[in-house]
Amino acid sequence: MDKKGNRMKTTRMKKYSVLFVVLVILFTCSPFALAQSEDVYHPQGFFFNLQFVLTISWGNETSTPISPGETREVNLTITYTVTRGLYGRLLLQLLKGKSFPIQLFIEDKLDWCEAWTFPENMTGVIAPGEVGIQYSSLFIHLNDDAPSNYTNGYIKIRCVAENMKGPFNIITLIHGYEQQFTITFVTGP
What we know:
Blueprint: H1 3-28, E1 51-58, E2 71-83, H2 88-94, E3 99-109, E4 113-118, E5 121-125, E6 132-142, E7 152-161, E8 164-165, E9 172-174, E10 177-186
Antiparallel strand pairs: 1-2, 2-6, 3-5, 3-7, 4-6, 7-10, 8-9
């Protein structure tokens, strides 16, 4: 072969190598796994692996007993961030400033109390390398027939950030996250 033929062959091999690497990256990030549940942490690929992480903390508003007929407000702080894989920094920078929904749900409570959050829907903003904060309130109302003899009570809250999809809602860019938290309290006279 002459020099021109070798150069064309080398150029063609480089193109195929680049195509192969791109396909490996796409498939190891597993964006086509659309049938997976969105209710837990989904570690997917080695390269990008962008994942929301949420946590809820609260003050000591439930340290004193709650009386039947009383409504108690508990201040909630929701912190969030996006974790990433080996090459996720570039993709995360491209998504900087994009918003995503954060939702709170009351999962479980005792029959003799009512509970609700306000707001229950919030908006987070992607900020690479930073922890974002949103605030909400949990309201606990004890019915008149609630026990008043220092009985333990609880409220289970689920905090959710759903998958962030790419163009045409086909590829998952950031995997969703869901966490359940239990807030305990004591009834009193």
